[in-house]
Amino acid sequence: MDGDYVAAMHRSHASIGRAMFYTSVIIVLGFSILALSKFIPTIYFGVLTGFAMLAAILAALTLLPRLILLVKPLGKPQPKDDRLQAQAV
Fold first, then answer.
1. pTM, whole model, 2 decimals?
2. Fewest CB atoms within 10 A around its CB: which of 1, 2, 10, 18?
3. How confident is the model at residue 72, as a pLDDT?
4. Exposure of 80 in the CB half-sphere (CA atoms within 13 A)
5. CB of 33 within 8 A of CB of 7?
6. 19 in Cβ contact with 49 (< 8 Å)
């Protein structure tokens, strides 16, 4: 951990975020197939589940990183010189 929240966010989006995005798109497409059903509750289930997945991935990739940058749950990052001294002790 380097203590740089912005760099960590960029690294996460480049690796895990891409996998989350593609997985969610595939799940939404899978549930959207249910919209072709003739049974009305199945159509609603497919459409609403797809909408919920889109909302979840949108929040996970935009809102959550912004909240982490605002709250800084692991504390404020230390200057680089202080980290080196803390590791030496």
1. 0.71
2. 1
3. 85
4. 1
5. no
6. no
Q: Do the Cβ atoms of 1 and 37 come closer than 8 Å?
A: no
> What is d(CA 52, CA 44) in angstroms, rounded to the nearest whole number?
12
Residue bearing tokens 């197939």: 33
All structural domains of the chain with their residue ranges: 5-88
Q: How far apart are CA 46 and CA 30, in angstroms?
A: 8
Read off φ and ψ for residue 73, nearest 5 degrees: -65, -20
pLDDT in tens, 28-47: 999 999 999 999 999 999 99
How far is 23 from 29, CA to CA, in rounded Å?
10
How far apart CA 69 and CA 63 sit, in angstroms, is: 10
Planar angle of CA 77, 79, 82, nearest 5 degrees: 110
Interatomic CA distance for residues 49 and 61, integer angstroms: 18
C-beta of residue 28 within 8 angstroms of C-beta of residue 50: yes
